Structures are given as C-alpha cells and as structure tokens.
UniProtKB/TrEMBL annotation:
Source lineage: unclassified sequences, metagenomes, ecological metagenomes
Organism: marine sediment metagenome
Protein name: Uncharacterized protein
C-alpha cells in the first residue's frame, strides 16, 4: 500500500469517526440527510445505506437502536 492509499484510508476513518460522534445529538431529519452524505462517501455501499435510510424513515426498531448508540 503506497503513501496516498494510506492517507486516504486514514482520512476516511477519521471522517467516519467524526460523523459518528456528531450523530449522538442529531435530529431525525439530519440523521436521514446524513445517509445521503454517506452514499457519496462510500458509493460501494449505496444499496445498504438506502436500506438503512428506509428503516430510519419508517421508524423501524433499527432506528431506535441507532439513536441510542
């Protein structure tokens, strides 16, 4: 793995950590909006993120677990 790949991986991990810390006090609407940002950050996981967003929009039990996490 070259230097640029290591840098990309490091910055991605740091960005995800900051986002996760910011989710603690976020509103419902912002949580759903963040799923759109997540699609742009990780396009390879787009279908999974869309499923999570649908669960949040439907206020499924997973939504309440995510709020408590």
């Amino acid at each position: 793995m070259d230097y640029i790949e290591k840098l990309k991986n490091y910055t991605t991990k740091q960005t995800v950590n900051l986002i996760m810390k910011g989710l603690i006090n976020t509103s419902d609407g912002n949580l759903i909006r963040l799923t759109y940002a997540a699609e742009k950050i990780a396009p390879q996981h787009k279908t999974k993120i869309q499923k999570v967003r649908k669960l949040f929009q439907d206020k499924a039990p997973a939504y309440f677990l995510a709020q408590k996490a």
